[in-house]
Amino acid sequence: MKVLVILSHPNLESSIANKTIIENLKKANLEIALEVRHLESLYPDYIIDVKSEQNALLNADFIIFQHPFYWYSTPAILKKYLDEVLIWGFAFGVGGDKLKGKQFLQSITLGGSKESYTPLGYNRFRLKDFLKPMEQTVYHTQMIYNPPLYSYRNAYEPNILNSMSEVKENAVAHAEKIIAKIQDFTKGNKVKVEAFIHKWFTHFDKLDENGYFIQYLHKKVEFTFPGYGNMIGHGEFNKWYQSIIEKLEAPTKHEVKNLIIEERERNEFDIRFQVQFQAKEKESQKEINVVESENWKLIWDENSDRPLIEKYIVTV
Ligand SMILES: Cc1cc2nc3c(=O)[nH]c(=O)nc-3n(C[C@H](O)[C@H](O)[C@H](O)COP(=O)(O)O)c2cc1C
User: Fold this and answer.
1) Total of domains in the chain
2) Burial class (CB in 10 A: 0-12, 13-18, 19+), 113
3) Ligand 1 close to Cβ of residue 22 (< 6 A)
4) Domain limits for position 37
5) The pTM is what?
6) Do residues 235 and 272 share a domain?
């Protein structure tokens, strides 16, 4: 897991906000690889080494653009970086899927106040309107767009605009937001997968409508249940589930034990566990009490923030 910060500031020496943000990021104990590439230091003549920049992007899981807002956009070299590094065959077009699935975050410091970015303020438009080109760039390059982080009132003009300590405090709070975002990401979706499995069985216990389950099943889900053999797809799941509803009294009881969730690839999970399954058959009033082994393959879809089960194997 690697975080890449593309920092653009033409005069970092005199920066307060961006310099403080980067210092705080570096000293936070993130327990992950963090690379900060300050474009203007790497390329004082503005001649960008495209291959090195593309390699840095390829190695990263989480890409952050950190910069001050300049003329409602990025500093010049960051725009040049977009034009030269995110090119056809790399970031879009034929073979251009190298950034697909990477997390992206734009993190901006602004001189203006919140009120200035309203229809009656001097900046006239909302900040999110100015940020649309970047949002679309991220979409077009198939990265995952995180809502941007920004902070207002960072311009410092002694005795005219803000105090040094205000801008610094602002920047420390801004860095904390970035750190929280990175930490959220490193925790990943494992916790959500676990919560989902428990929720799934709560609905199973109620013998809920089949629609509840179908929304989380891949269209071509492969599944096997004891006594039913191998089945594929929503139609066969519906048939199986109908037979279960007809056969069993609600509620049933599923107790999940020995849950092991392994993230094979980012957001692709192999899941193994046992279920103590207790139920009563409607007609015969026969009690069922078995321990079943389950093997699932599940994908966590970042865009919808929901799981999708691809394989669902149950054996006794
Ligand atoms: C060339 C230039 C253009 C700027 N354009 C904007 C702007 O469009 N909107 C805004 O809110 N602030 C603007 N500012 C203010 C900067 O965003 C602000 O000074 C900066 O975020 C402070 O960060 P720093 O201490 O790291 O330099 C501009 C500043 C400069 C120098």
Assistant:
1) 2
2) middle
3) no
4) 2-187
5) 0.72
6) yes
